[in-house]
């Protein structure tokens, strides 16, 4: 009596991401790599490995490494915009809102130092990516709205709101960069909250009643 032929074991096919999910999966993988090793650690192959797909799969969504980095930067800028705008609208008066935007900006940089460096670094040629530039405009727009509110309240003298916004952003961005790069502690033994308080005291001088 012959034995019944043995059925071949079915090998399950790897479960890929559903259509529309891979872009997000690659983006999150790239963000993980940024947090783990900085922007220089990001590669399309590495993102593919983290996402569990073939090395060729990312090219359906991102032309090259720069395009992937640009997407990460765009998302980071939009998250920064959300943080600062939330702080601005929650404030009780124009001066408080102006300072709250700065506090939220510093908080974002302190929480996401590697992402922050990428957002304002030179890892990719930003002018090539319109969505990134638009996200940058949205981020600066929060600072500008805060300055415009101060101007409308008669708190900035004859200075245009654009100048007030630029001055405030430059000072806060500078402090954030000094902190995330570890320079602040080397040059001045002052914790970030104390340095921020000193900075905001100076900023307040520029938007106080006259």
Automatic annotation (TrEMBL):
- Asked if the keyword Phosphoprotein belongs to this entry, the reply reads no
Q: Which domain of life is it from?
A: Bacteria
Indicate the secretion signal residues: none
State any single GO MF term: transcription cis-regulatory region binding
- UniProt keywords, alphabetically: DNA-binding, Transcription, Transcription regulation
User: What SUPFAM superfamilies has UniProt attached to this entry?
Assistant: Homeodomain-like (SSF46689), Tetracyclin repressor-like, C-terminal domain (SSF48498)
Residues spanning the membrane: none
Give all residue intervals belonging to the HTH tetR-type domain: 20-80
Where's the DNA-binding part?
43-62
Protein name according to UniProt: Transcriptional regulator, TetR family
């Amino acid at each position: 009596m012959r034995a019944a032929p043995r059925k071949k074991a079915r090998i399950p096919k790897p479960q890929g991401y559903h259509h529309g999910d891979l872009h997000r999966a690659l983006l999150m993988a790239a963000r993980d790599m940024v947090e783990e090793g900085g922007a220089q650690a990001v590669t399309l192959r590495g993102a593919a490995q983290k996402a569990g797909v073939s090395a060729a799969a990312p090219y359906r969504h991102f032309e090259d490494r720069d395009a992937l980095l640009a997407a990460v930067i765009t998302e980071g800028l939009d998250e920064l915009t959300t943080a600062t705008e939330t702080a601005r609208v929650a404030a009780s008066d124009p001066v408080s809102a102006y300072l709250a935007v700065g506090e939220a900006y510093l908080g974002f940089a302190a929480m996401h130092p590697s992402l922050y460096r990428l957002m304002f670094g030179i890892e990719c040629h930003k002018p090539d990516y319109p969505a990134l530039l638009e996200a940058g405009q949205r981020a600066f727009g929060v600072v500008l709205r805060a300055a415009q509110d101060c101007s409308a309240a008669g708190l900035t003298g004859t200075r245009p709101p654009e100048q007030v916004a630029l001055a405030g952003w430059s000072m806060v961005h500078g402090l954030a960069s000094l902190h995330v790069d570890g320079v602040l502690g080397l040059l001045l033994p002052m914790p970030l909250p104390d340095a921020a308080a000193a900075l905001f005291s100076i900023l307040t001088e520029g938007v106080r009643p006259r």
